[in-house]
S-acyltransferase (Salvia divinorum), 365 residues
Amino acid sequence: MGVSCGSSLRDTWSRAADRCSRLFPCFSDPARRSAFSLKLALVLLHILFAGVLFLFDRDLIEKTKHQPWYTATYVLLFVATLVQYFVTAGTSPGYVIDVQKAIDERDAEARRTLLASNIQKAVDDRDAAARKPLFASKQPASSKNGDVAITVDGRNNHRGNVTAWTKLVMSLFPQRSSPTGLTCPYCNILQPPRAKHCHDCNKCVLQFDHHCVWLGTCIGQGNHCRFWWYICGETALTLWTCILYIGYLKSNILKAWWADIILILLLAALSISLIFLMLLLLFHSYLIMTNQTTYELVRRRRIAYLRGIPERVYPFNEGVCRNLYLFCCARSSSMYRLERLPTAQELEEKSRPYTCYDVLSCRCC
Ligand SMILES: [Zn+2]
Ligand SMILES: [Zn+2]
C-alpha cells in the first residue's frame, strides 16, 4: 500500500515536472532551475522581512497614512535593491571568449575593409592604365597585361596563424613569456593578465573576483561595479529594516509575546546579515581603491604574476582617484579594459617607501 502510494506520488511529480518543462523549456536545464529557485528565494526572503513588519506594526501603518513619503522612500529602496540584484545577476562578468571573439571579428572586419579598398585601388589603376594612350601602356611593368595580383589570407595573420587576440594578449606580458603557459586548459584560450577560469561558469573571466553563489554568476570586470552598488543598496535596506524592527519592539514589547518572538528572531537574522554586508562593503571598497580582486588578495602566493612582489605593493594600483575612475567609468559600453603587467621599473617605483613629499603631493591618490 505504502509502496504503491509512493510510486504514484513519484509518477505525479514526474508528470508535473514534464508538463512544466514543456510549458517552460528553459526549466528543463537543472542549472537554470536552481538559479530561478535562488532568485525566487531571495525575493520571498525580502518580502518576508518587510511584510512581517507591515503586518504587525500598526504604528508604521499609521505613519504611512500621515507621512507617505517615509514609507514610499523605504519601498523605493526595497524595489531598487531587488532591481539591482537582478541587473547584476544578468550582467556578463566579462567572459574572455566574448572579448576574444569581438577583437578577432573587429580585426577581420578591418582586414576586409583594407582588402576591399586595395581591390578598388587596383581596379582603378588597371582602368586608368587601359585608358592611357598606347605608347604610355608600355611603361608600368606591373600592369602590362592588365592582371592584378592580390594575396588573400582568410586568417587574420602576419606570422603563421597568430590572431589579433594572441598579439594583443602577448603584448600585455613581458617580452619572454610563452603562450603555452598562459593558455587556459579548459577553454583552450589565451588568458590576459588578471583573468581566471571559473569552474562553476566553465569560462574564463576578465579580472576575476569571485563566483557569487547568491547571484548565481561570476563577479568580474563587467559587473563588479554593479555588484558594489547592489551590496551598498542591500546594506542600506537591511539597516533601515533593522531600525524599523527595533522601533516596533521598543514601543510594543510585552503587548503580544508571540509576535515579539517572531520579530526578535527576524531581527537577530537581520543583524547578522547587516554585519556581514557591512564587512563585505568595506572589503570591496578597499579592493576597488587599491585595484585588487578578492582572488588576487586571497591567492596572492599562488598567482604567477604576483609571485615575488612584496605584500604591500599592489601592481595594478594607479592611485585612489584613477582606480575609482577606472572602476566606475572607464569601461565603454562595448569593450572591456585589458591591463598589462607592470614592468620591473614600475614595480620598483610602486614599492618605494612614502616620504613627506609623497604625502604632501598625494602620491596615493
Ligand atoms: Zn577557461
Ligand atoms: Zn563563475
